[in-house]
């Protein structure tokens, strides 16, 4: 690899063209992909044909897509190319996790300015290979095109033997639970923007290289959880989404929200607002009866916190109560593209 | 619909935000999608959850993705938004056709500048609904994001009960056959660029609103065809692709290439080069023994022309012979992004 590295150093995309880049990507995948996973074994046609093809081996197929755009979701230079590749795939795998499924196949579409360095694109694939190898996902195809704006549009197919966890499954009387900590990714973004970031801090790591909660999603499904969502828009906003889909309301208690020590130390005045409103956490928010959550807590290797309860009626409304039982008003309720003010 | 049309007229995306647009798209799909197809019936979770979910009903899943970028694949203003939506889905369905499969589910990712009109985005969905209804495809999910450059990244999942048609299946002795006419789309693009286009002419139609050859792809698979590809890069270039994948060579004869009357009349000196090198035709190029092609010709409702034969060795090399048996040299061998000169 070192030899290849030297040869392609500072070579621009325009020098080798679309097909030249695809050849290099294919060679990288062939040399690095760990093809022992069920997904790779069931893949009949991968990169290089009109479409990918795999043998079905489960009752249900899951499919999701998520796109990262330069200047919107990331800034080139702020994240390494490798982390960018990891994250682009991680956010899609997180959607599969939120259904309780297993991610299996991915199609990778890149829109690339012609002065992008070939080396950087291959580094992005190194990051995608790192996470796809970890979770047994096969890179099955994609599309590469010129674009003035750099973007990475990923589709992931997954499988589930049982009916998946839906947003609309919440039932009145359910408790609301959360894996891990929220607000870290937003804190990491703030630290990077103020140039105060240490690259190995938990918050910067959460922002640049989030981990999909795949084991936890499966555990929630198998244990009898009612509904689940991954937190990409912010805890309060995503709780609103599942309540709206389920036509119920929710009450959460600020003193039950787990606050990571780094949030407290770096953003003492904003820690709670970051935990409630910061997006891109990719933790799982789920609802279930108390006894189901108790079982999940025993089996989970990740922190699971009960943060509130579901109430009948009041569709989609989330009440946030402080220690005194008073309504707490969040400043930034969540992420919404395009909308100003 | 007329009332909605008036209300949303000239409303910009930035005024209603991502979630507002998604609500309008969902309402449009709910009102227009014809949900009687097997794909819609097997869809368990559609738009609005973390991932889409459907019940598997075939042995193999096919998956493909293709992206259209403003300024690269289309120019806003040159095509109607409705045709753009049609084409973005058509080019993906064409990849499924080239495998002999049935397209079933699509995920639609839009990268949208914030000053795009909501009405135009909904028109784009009207075009997608037109073609998805025609072929029974379910719009199962997607992602909408801000982007300075407008792009449409589509993933389509399909199914096949038998092993699909591959590029690598060509065998020496196969004949080479083609559905329909090539070069029309390139001609349509040229006519539009020179402002000489009539919008209902066959070439402009081929460029702006191509039809995937789904019935033909299935017929080729069921009849015992060996290999197939859809012509997106140009007839000669795509023939090179399947020959390279199959480690064989090919000979094609210029006097056997079907030339559409409009190519002859509009581009008398370039008709052959357009037919051999013009891209984006989305016709199917396939190889099979003579008796298989004979059966396909009888059953096909589309023109099928035998244009040459496969030869052993000479991997990936395509010889083009003129009427005198001399080598014919094509000026523009095919489409390759990024590459200059």
Quick overview:
Chain A has helices at residues 2-8, 13-32, 38-42, 81-97, 118-135, 184-193, 202-208, 214-223, 235-246, 261-266, 271-277, 290-299, and strands at residues 43-45, 52-55, 60-69, 102-112, 138-146, 151-160, 175-179, 227-230, 248-253, 284-288, 304-312, 318-321. By secondary structure, the first copy, chain A, is an alpha+beta fold.
Characteristic key phrases:
disordered C terminus, alpha+beta, six-stranded mixed sheet, homodimer, four-stranded mixed sheet, 12 helices
Please render the helix and strand layout as text.
Two copies of one chain form a homodimer.
Chain A: H1 2-8, H2 13-32, H3 38-42, E1 43-45, E2 52-55, E3 60-69, H4 81-97, E4 102-112, H5 118-135, E5 138-146, E6 151-160, E7 175-179, H6 184-193, H7 202-208, H8 214-223, E8 227-230, H9 235-246, E9 248-253, H10 261-266, H11 271-277, E10 284-288, H12 290-299, E11 304-312, E12 318-321
Parallel strand pairs in A: 4-5, 9-12
Antiparallel strand pairs in A: 1-2, 3-6, 4-6, 7-10, 7-11, 8-10, 9-11
Helix pairs in contact in A: 2-5, 4-5, 4-8, 6-7, 8-12
